[in-house]
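Students often ask why we bother encoding 3D structure as a string. The short answer is that it lets us treat folding as translation between two languages. Here is a chain of 326 residues written in the first language.
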Amino acid sequence: MFNRFKKPIVITGANASGKTVLSLAIAKEIGVEIISADSRQIYKHLTAGTSKPEGRWFNKENPIYLVDNIPYHLVDFIDPLETYNAQKYFYDFKSTLDKIKTNTFIICGGTGFYINSLFNPLDPLPEGNEKIRAELKEFADKNGRESLHNKLKELDPISAKKIHPNNINRVIRAIEVSLITSKPYSSLISNTLFDSKSYNSAFFVFIKWNRELLYKRIKNRTKKVFESWAEEIRYLVSNGYPQDCPGLKSLGYPAMIDYMEGNITKEEAVEIITRQSMEYAKRQNTWFSRYKSLIFEIEDEKDFDIDKISKTVITEHENSCNNSKR
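And here it is in the second language, the structure alphabet:
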């Protein structure tokens, strides 16, 4: 897929780990474009709660989202009413490659399933069925996520072991596919999900923060954007978006809605969002640890020196590209 490019640089890490700021620093230094791999920054109107990089759309005929004059692809292009998945991301990514004008590019994001789909493409699966999906969401709302996960256990015990009950979108997708095909979801997935050979076509970078420092970063970021996050939700709801639309099911948004409805305090909302974000960060770190990466262990705030890290990434990336030619 990347044949006409030098090895792309893949910046991975948990939420709030500084992937975007590092990617922009590298992109400016070597003059390349960025493709996002974030399952929530795809949505229009969702910025504060998704940490979408602030940019502007240019050129109505061939729209391009620019962040600090850097083309930043696959963000801010899906309506919050729409569902999206890794297969759609894979095809959108392939289409985006035709627009890239630089000799390589950066993939920046924390959605491991999206990133992995680029190196180990997913098996063809049926399109989503909105009726089934809506019924499963309603079941989860009434009976809880554990009950929904038990449904998956009945249909596909193998997938149930691999998918956490809190990852409701993946639970729903696995049940949905199992019902549509009358076969367990796991039986339709090949064993090439983590085929390490395919990763050699890119240069991976993993920003791994100390757990306590990451907790503080997430909590501070949540507090900082809290009011603009609430305003964002008010705008969507006042414009007819239902509270349970796919976009507003994103991490943190249900807690914010609970706060806005007076069900919990601001402090409780911050704690819930921070806790859920840390749970997600743990899963992200587990996923990204599977890749052979240039790892930056951040044990102190001063370790996150953007200038120093970006220079190291650029040097090591160039070495990796040169070694591949031999």
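Translate back mentally: Residues 211-238 form the longest helix (28 residues). Keep this in mind for the problem set.
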